[in-house]
Amino acid sequence: MSWSLYDSRGRRKYLVPEERWAFLRIARRVGGEVGTFCAVLAYCGPRISEALALTPERIDDGDCTINFETLKRRKRGVIRTIPVPRKLLEELERVHRYRSAQRNKKLAHQRLWTWSRTTAWRRVKEVALRAGIPTYLCTPKALRHAFGVFAELSKVGLTLIKKWMGHAKLETTEIYTTVIGEEERFLARLTWKRSPPGYRR
User: Fold this and answer.
1) Residues contacting 172, CB < 8 A, separation 6+
2) pTM value surpassing 0.70
3) 41, 70, 110, 144: least CB-packed within 10 angstroms?
4) Domain residue limits, the chain
5) Euclidean distance between CA atoms 141 and 39, whole angstroms
Protein backbone atom coordinates (compact mmCIF):
# COMPACT_ATOMS: atom_id res chain seq x y z
CA MET A 1 0.00 0.00 0.00
CA SER A 2 1.17 3.56 -0.63
CA TRP A 3 0.21 4.73 2.86
CA SER A 4 -0.09 3.37 6.37
CA LEU A 5 -1.27 4.30 9.85
CA TYR A 6 2.26 5.47 10.72
CA ASP A 7 4.08 8.50 9.38
CA SER A 8 7.64 8.63 8.05
CA ARG A 9 8.93 9.26 11.59
CA GLY A 10 7.27 6.10 12.91
CA ARG A 11 4.48 7.94 14.76
CA ARG A 12 0.92 6.62 14.63
CA LYS A 13 -1.66 8.69 12.77
CA TYR A 14 -4.62 7.60 14.91
CA LEU A 15 -5.87 8.14 18.45
CA VAL A 16 -5.81 5.19 20.83
CA PRO A 17 -9.12 4.49 22.66
CA GLU A 18 -8.07 6.42 25.78
CA GLU A 19 -7.29 9.52 23.70
CA ARG A 20 -10.55 9.15 21.79
CA TRP A 21 -12.58 9.04 25.01
CA ALA A 22 -10.65 12.03 26.39
CA PHE A 23 -11.48 13.95 23.19
CA LEU A 24 -15.18 13.08 23.54
CA ARG A 25 -15.23 14.15 27.20
CA ILE A 26 -13.82 17.58 26.34
CA ALA A 27 -16.14 17.89 23.34
CA ARG A 28 -19.12 17.27 25.58
CA ARG A 29 -17.82 19.81 28.09
CA VAL A 30 -17.40 22.42 25.33
CA GLY A 31 -20.88 21.63 24.01
CA GLY A 32 -22.82 23.54 21.39
CA GLU A 33 -22.05 23.19 17.71
CA VAL A 34 -18.39 22.48 18.41
CA GLY A 35 -19.33 19.63 20.73
CA THR A 36 -21.73 18.02 18.28
CA PHE A 37 -19.32 18.33 15.36
CA CYS A 38 -16.53 16.68 17.32
CA ALA A 39 -18.87 13.92 18.52
CA VAL A 40 -20.03 13.16 14.98
CA LEU A 41 -16.41 12.91 13.80
CA ALA A 42 -15.52 10.56 16.66
CA TYR A 43 -18.59 8.32 16.51
CA CYS A 44 -19.01 8.15 12.73
CA GLY A 45 -15.53 8.57 11.23
CA PRO A 46 -16.52 10.76 8.25
CA ARG A 47 -14.12 12.87 6.25
CA ILE A 48 -14.33 16.48 7.42
CA SER A 49 -16.08 17.57 4.20
CA GLU A 50 -18.63 14.77 4.62
CA ALA A 51 -19.42 15.90 8.15
CA LEU A 52 -19.79 19.53 7.05
CA ALA A 53 -22.23 18.42 4.33
CA LEU A 54 -24.57 16.80 6.87
CA THR A 55 -28.18 18.07 6.76
CA PRO A 56 -31.18 17.41 9.04
CA GLU A 57 -32.85 15.09 6.53
CA ARG A 58 -29.91 12.69 6.74
CA ILE A 59 -30.43 11.98 10.42
CA ASP A 60 -32.68 8.92 10.82
CA ASP A 61 -34.38 8.78 14.22
CA GLY A 62 -36.25 5.57 13.51
CA ASP A 63 -33.11 3.64 12.56
CA CYS A 64 -30.85 5.61 14.96
CA THR A 65 -28.38 6.28 12.17
CA ILE A 66 -26.68 9.15 10.40
CA ASN A 67 -26.39 8.96 6.62
CA PHE A 68 -23.35 10.47 4.91
CA GLU A 69 -22.73 11.03 1.24
CA THR A 70 -19.38 9.49 0.34
CA LEU A 71 -17.56 12.29 -1.44
CA LYS A 72 -14.43 10.51 -2.67
CA ARG A 73 -16.23 8.68 -5.46
CA ARG A 74 -16.53 9.34 -9.18
CA LYS A 75 -20.30 9.67 -8.92
CA ARG A 76 -22.47 11.60 -6.48
CA GLY A 77 -25.25 10.16 -4.35
CA VAL A 78 -23.33 7.27 -2.77
CA ILE A 79 -24.80 7.16 0.74
CA ARG A 80 -23.49 5.16 3.69
CA THR A 81 -25.39 4.62 6.92
CA ILE A 82 -23.65 4.74 10.33
CA PRO A 83 -25.40 3.48 13.49
CA VAL A 84 -24.92 5.93 16.38
CA PRO A 85 -25.76 6.06 20.10
CA ARG A 86 -29.22 7.45 20.84
CA LYS A 87 -27.58 10.02 23.13
CA LEU A 88 -25.75 11.50 20.14
CA LEU A 89 -29.05 12.08 18.35
CA GLU A 90 -30.48 13.65 21.49
CA GLU A 91 -27.56 16.07 21.65
CA LEU A 92 -27.90 16.89 17.95
CA GLU A 93 -31.59 17.62 18.53
CA ARG A 94 -30.86 19.82 21.55
CA VAL A 95 -28.29 21.90 19.68
CA HIS A 96 -29.57 21.86 16.09
CA ARG A 97 -33.32 21.13 16.41
CA TYR A 98 -33.07 18.86 13.37
CA ARG A 99 -36.47 17.20 13.93
CA SER A 100 -38.44 20.35 13.32
CA ALA A 101 -36.07 21.22 10.46
CA GLN A 102 -36.90 17.88 8.81
CA ARG A 103 -40.52 19.03 8.52
CA ASN A 104 -39.51 22.22 6.73
CA LYS A 105 -38.63 21.72 3.06
CA LYS A 106 -36.13 24.60 3.10
CA LEU A 107 -34.44 23.85 6.42
CA ALA A 108 -34.22 20.10 5.77
CA HIS A 109 -31.53 20.73 3.13
CA GLN A 110 -29.46 23.23 5.11
CA ARG A 111 -26.16 22.17 6.62
CA LEU A 112 -25.98 21.65 10.38
CA TRP A 113 -22.61 23.44 10.51
CA THR A 114 -22.01 26.39 8.20
CA TRP A 115 -18.29 26.64 8.90
CA SER A 116 -15.53 26.48 6.33
CA ARG A 117 -13.16 23.50 6.35
CA THR A 118 -10.48 25.70 7.93
CA THR A 119 -12.75 26.74 10.79
CA ALA A 120 -13.90 23.17 11.37
CA TRP A 121 -10.30 21.95 11.41
CA ARG A 122 -9.39 24.64 13.93
CA ARG A 123 -12.30 23.76 16.22
CA VAL A 124 -11.27 20.11 16.29
CA LYS A 125 -7.65 21.01 17.03
CA GLU A 126 -8.69 23.24 19.95
CA VAL A 127 -10.71 20.43 21.56
CA ALA A 128 -7.97 17.86 20.97
CA LEU A 129 -5.33 20.08 22.56
CA ARG A 130 -7.54 20.58 25.62
CA ALA A 131 -7.85 16.78 25.84
CA GLY A 132 -4.07 16.50 26.13
CA ILE A 133 -3.61 14.83 22.76
CA PRO A 134 -0.19 15.27 21.09
CA THR A 135 -0.19 18.21 18.69
CA TYR A 136 0.57 16.14 15.59
CA LEU A 137 -2.57 14.07 16.27
CA CYS A 138 -4.90 17.04 16.74
CA THR A 139 -6.54 16.64 13.34
CA PRO A 140 -9.92 15.47 11.99
CA LYS A 141 -8.13 12.74 10.04
CA ALA A 142 -6.68 11.28 13.25
CA LEU A 143 -10.26 10.92 14.49
CA ARG A 144 -11.27 9.18 11.26
CA HIS A 145 -8.37 6.78 11.62
CA ALA A 146 -9.31 6.24 15.28
CA PHE A 147 -12.82 5.26 14.22
CA GLY A 148 -11.43 2.56 11.93
CA VAL A 149 -8.90 1.38 14.50
CA PHE A 150 -11.49 1.14 17.27
CA ALA A 151 -13.83 -0.83 14.99
CA GLU A 152 -10.99 -3.23 14.19
CA LEU A 153 -10.06 -3.67 17.85
CA SER A 154 -13.76 -4.27 18.62
CA LYS A 155 -13.78 -7.17 16.13
CA VAL A 156 -16.05 -5.51 13.60
CA GLY A 157 -15.70 -7.27 10.24
CA LEU A 158 -13.61 -5.63 7.54
CA THR A 159 -16.50 -5.55 5.09
CA LEU A 160 -18.61 -3.53 7.54
CA ILE A 161 -15.70 -1.22 8.41
CA LYS A 162 -15.23 -0.65 4.67
CA LYS A 163 -18.89 0.32 4.37
CA TRP A 164 -18.83 2.62 7.40
CA MET A 165 -15.69 4.42 6.26
CA GLY A 166 -16.73 4.74 2.64
CA HIS A 167 -13.66 3.02 1.21
CA ALA A 168 -13.78 2.03 -2.44
CA LYS A 169 -11.45 -0.94 -1.95
CA LEU A 170 -11.15 -3.51 0.83
CA GLU A 171 -7.37 -3.24 0.55
CA THR A 172 -7.61 0.28 2.01
CA THR A 173 -9.63 -0.99 4.98
CA GLU A 174 -7.13 -3.81 5.61
CA ILE A 175 -4.62 -1.18 6.71
CA TYR A 176 -6.52 -1.03 10.00
CA THR A 177 -5.56 -4.63 10.81
CA THR A 178 -1.93 -3.53 11.26
CA VAL A 179 -2.52 -1.85 14.62
CA ILE A 180 -1.46 -3.41 17.89
CA GLY A 181 -4.53 -5.08 19.37
CA GLU A 182 -5.06 -6.66 22.77
CA GLU A 183 -4.14 -10.12 21.46
CA GLU A 184 -0.79 -8.91 20.14
CA ARG A 185 -0.11 -7.05 23.38
CA PHE A 186 -0.94 -10.22 25.35
CA LEU A 187 1.56 -12.25 23.33
CA ALA A 188 4.18 -9.53 23.68
CA ARG A 189 3.60 -9.50 27.44
CA LEU A 190 4.64 -13.14 27.56
CA THR A 191 8.08 -12.13 26.32
CA TRP A 192 8.42 -9.61 29.15
CA LYS A 193 8.17 -12.18 31.96
CA ARG A 194 11.92 -12.26 32.55
CA SER A 195 12.32 -8.53 32.31
CA PRO A 196 13.58 -6.58 35.36
CA PRO A 197 10.90 -5.56 37.87
CA GLY A 198 8.98 -2.50 36.76
CA TYR A 199 9.07 -3.38 33.07
CA ARG A 200 6.50 -6.18 32.96
CA ARG A 201 3.25 -4.27 32.45
Assistant:
1) 1, 162
2) yes
3) 110
4) 17-134
5) 14
Tell me the C-alpha distance between 94 and 103, whole Å: 16
- b/e per residue 74-92 (b: at least 16 CB within 10 A): eeeeeebebebeeebbebb
pLDDT tens digits, one per residue of 136-191: 999 999 999 999 999 988 889 999 999 999 998 999 999 888 887 776 777 787 77
Residue 175, classified by CB atoms within 10 Å of its CB into exposed (0-12), middle (13-18) or buried (19+), is middle
Tell me if 88 sits within 8 A of 64, measured CB to CB: no
Task: Give the CATH architecture of domain 17-134.
Answer: Orthogonal Bundle (1.10)
* CA 169/CA 112 separation, integer angstroms: 30
